[in-house]
TrEMBL record:
Ribonucleoprotein recorded as keyword: no
Keywords: Coiled coil, DNA recombination
The keyword Coiled coil belongs to this UniProt entry's keyword annotation: yes
Biological role stated in the UniProt entry: Involved in DNA recombination.
The protein, known as: DNA recombination protein RmuC
PANTHER family cross-referenced by the UniProt entry: DNA RECOMBINATION PROTEIN RMUC
Species the sequence originates in: Oceanipulchritudo coccoides
GO biological process: DNA recombination
Pfam families assigned: RmuC (PF02646)
Coiled coil segments of this chain: 29-81
Family membership: Belongs to the RmuC family.
Recorded superkingdom: Bacteria
Amino acid sequence: MEWILAVSLGILLGVIGWFVGRASMGTRLESLRSERDDVKSRLADAEIRREMEARASAERLDELKELREKFETTFKALSADALQRNNQQFLDLAKQTFGRLQEGAKGDLEKRQQAINELVGPIKKSLEQVDEKIQLIEKAREGAYSGLQEQVRNLLESQGKLQTETNNLVFALKTPSVRGRWGEMQLKRTVEFAGMIENVDFVQQESTDTETGRLRPDLIVKLPGGKNIVVDAKAPLDAYLQALESKDGDEIVRQLKRHARQIRDHIKALGSKQYWRQFDPSPEFVVIFLPGEAFFSAALEQDPDLLQYGTSENVLLATPTTLIALLKAAAYGWRQEAIADEAKQISALGRELYERLTTQTEHYVDVGKALKRAVDSYNKSIRSMETRVLVTARKFESLAEDSKKKLPELEQLEDTPIEPEGD
């Protein structure tokens, strides 16, 4: 069930990511399209201005033509003869003037046309670049969409496989022996993950005979001070498994409520037996191990007072996560117990070492006293030798002049042994 939830969550996150990416890509595409429309608008404005300038130039040419016609009519009216004489000259002058004006207007129109082309050229180039970028974005979007489709397809295939495996697991767990074995395996993995050692920190399936029959807890965790905790992994799960198989919403709710009742009845059964009193020493409390977080959350959702009820019965509900925390706390207690034992041993060794050092120091004091007495006796003997024997012996020195040996001087010892210093 947890695998299905994880895969479904992955699919949901992938689809959300695709929609977010598509929205972001759509926003960028919309921005480029807006920029292209703006450039087109600017190009249209420039084209309109160019047409207006061309129209104005044409109008000026028309005005010049009308002016020439007016000049001809006026001169004809003044004098036909004068006009006849000067007509050709005037027409030539008018043609020259008109030609200059026409050339000027034409040059001005070409300059305006060139300016407009210089203005429109970069805009046209920008439009082409925008179109290229839009095409690239479209290709990237199509590639991303196809990649996402492939991922979704793979996820759906994985979900189908997981669904099949889950159905197989649910079918297998319908058998009580298989369900019990699976719970024991999950419990063992949890204990090993917590770093506990079998037959040192805990024992498995230790049986005890009572008046009502033989009790067989799945695990007994040893605590410092000779205490222990009993762990039971035989919680009923058939109602929850039937809820997984059902597709009817009302039936699912009924099965989940029955699952909560089964857990409560199991707590009551363990509490009513009070089988921890059959062990020596009595356990502190009993732990019902649920091999998955989903079993615990489903029961607690249907029966929010389940934890309080279990506490009143000295029965605790534990998932793999909470059981690991409990076992690590027990292991920490064992470490503290070991540290306390080592501290006691160190204290005993220190006391023994102090007593031995005291005895050895007393021996050194006795030796010092004996050495001091020996020095005093030596000095006393030297003084007696000097005053009573050597004084008379030195009188023979004058009579034994040929002797190579001289009578040595005897010196007293001044050093005395150092006494040990006390505190």
